[in-house]
Amino acid sequence: MKVRFWGVQGSTPTPLSNEQLQKKFKGVLRLAQDRSLRTDQDIENFLAELPFPLTHTIGGNTTCFEILSSAGTRVIVDMGSGARRLGWELLRGPAGEGKATLPILLTHCHWDHIMGLPFFMPLYVTGNKLQIYGGHPYLREALEWQTHPHSFPVRLEEVEAELTCTQIHEGEELVLDDLKIRCKSLEHPGGSFAYRITEGEKSLVIATDAEYKELDAESLRPFVEFYRDAEVLVFDAQYTLMDLFQKLDWGHSSSIIGVDICLMANVAKLVLTHHDPTYSDEMMTEILGRTEAFKQETQRQEHIHYKRGDLEILMGYESLEIEM
Amino acid sequence: MEINTIMENGVWILRLQGKLDSFTSKDFQEQLLEGIAQGRNKILLDAELLEYVSSAGLRIFYLASQRLQERGGKMVFCSLTPHVRRVFDIVDMSGEFRILPTRAEALKEF
Questions:
Q1: Contacts of A257 in chain B (CB under 8 A)
Q2: What is the ipTM for the molecules in this complex?
Q3: Do A181 and A105 form a contact (C-beta atoms < 8 A)?
Q4: CA separation for the pair A8, A60 (Å, rounded)
Q5: Cα separation of B80 and A208, whole Å?
Q6: How far is Cα A98 from Cα A223, in angstroms, rounded to an integer?
Q7: Minimal Cα–Cα distance from A258 to chain B, Å?
Q8: Which chain B residues are closer than 8 Å to A301 by Cβ?
Q9: What's the pLDDT tens digit per position in B87-102?
Q10: Of A156, A193, B44, B72, which cross-links A135 as Cys (Cβ 3.0–4.6 Å)?
Q11: What is the C-alpha separation between A237 and A253, in angstroms, rounded?
């Protein structure tokens, strides 16, 4: 099973600005001044040495993840603005011929998690089947709302593909070929749902848009148990810890809390997502560094018994792929 | 985790010993916030024997500090262990609190 990240931004799309792009160029050119870059290979080697924020961007699109099982079963989680590019990519396969069945899990129906659906090209190909699943009872109503003629020229009922919406419930298991899926409600304004997607013995948990209002063991237990032994936990890390403490009830979390939860739940990889739109690529790199430092400081305590050896922490960014 | 408390010249001193994590944080939170609710507005947290702090503990420190500020009170730390100091620095919390090397110096802050 693997997961591809098509959108990791929180709240609203945040394209890289011209000023930010120029800052990256200047940074690269500054480091290139004393280098002899005569061949393409020299350039490739030089770029590979540069720090992440000079050669990459976290990406400005909102939440969209694609999960592919080893047998080829595809599940999409959330339809943020990242779904637009995913849609074009899918058109190169059966979805381009109207022969695709695409299960889509919605964590919730806040705008940043559904805004990509009207721009998801497989929706406009006759014969495709889009199967929307989610924990909320008003999935269809929310999707129809955003394509009301006041807001969008094509109504949901007018699209070419067949679109179904099905509510799923905690405690139930949704089976999609070789993938088994369970959901868990999270603390978020209006509610949100985490998904645990399992192939064989390996599980991926996507838990975006979640606040952990109390951090004592008893309050965390339901979440820790849902995340337990996952290979990958994609975790809402919208704020630094200090920013989070000032934003109680905003429905989000922090990478530092993610580290403590992963160590309790024996998760192998922590992936940070739902980044705050006001944080730059440079700041995200600093957040990753501080999170790594916190993990090392925590893991070297003798009483911390983490069976996996060393918790791996990754910054979620567009085009990231993780194989499990 | 053990918490020993004494009053000294109107300052409520809590001597924290052991590990402040998600398993011990609830009792500490109740004790600290209850003290603030009862009107103790000069608080000194002596962390000389505090071996470990997790995000659960950090949240309580911040919460207590906010409650005290709302009431015109003050919270000061002293004698941080190297681990706790490093954690404060990593999460950028050191600047949020007044932190003194010794209890005697911390008491002069009130």
A1: 55
A2: 0.95
A3: yes
A4: 8
A5: 34
A6: 39
A7: 9
A8: 51-52, 83
A9: 999 999 999 999 999 9
A10: A193
A11: 5
